[in-house]
Amino acid sequence: MAKTDEAASGDAALGYEQARDELIDVVRRLEAGGTTLEESLALWERGEELAKVCHRWLEGARARLDAALAEPAEQE
């Protein structure tokens, strides 16, 4: 299994808050500097994956809210 596949499957189990907190840490580390180019690229890639996890959670929450808001209209 490829490294990205392993990371993606592990990321699926991350909750929104956990992914967000790790993303914040990645951004802080990138902003602080002092890392090699290779380390910076690895952090950037991890940040991109974490952002995708957060986006999926937020899209799921939006869909649930939209569905809940549509229910009363359907009942009328």
TrEMBL record:
It is found in: Cytoplasm. It is an enzyme of class 3 (hydrolase). The keyword Ribonucleoprotein does not apply. InterPro entries: Exonuc_VII_S (IPR003761), Exonuc_VII_ssu_sf (IPR037004). Transmembrane segments: none annotated. GO terms for molecular function: exodeoxyribonuclease VII activity. Its EC number is 3.1.11.6. One of its GO terms (cellular component) is cytosol. It catalyses: Exonucleolytic cleavage in either 5'- to 3'- or 3'- to 5'-direction to yield nucleoside 5'-phosphates. Gene3D superfamilies: Exonuclease VII, small subunit. Keywords: Cytoplasm, Exonuclease, Hydrolase, Nuclease. It comes from the Bacteria. One of its GO terms (biological process) is DNA catabolic process. Heterooligomer composed of large and small subunits. Bidirectionally degrades single-stranded DNA into large acid-insoluble oligonucleotides, which are then degraded further into small acid-soluble oligonucleotides. Belongs to the XseB family. This is Exodeoxyribonuclease 7 small subunit. The lineage of its organism: Bacteria, Bacillati, Actinomycetota, Actinomycetes, Kitasatosporales.
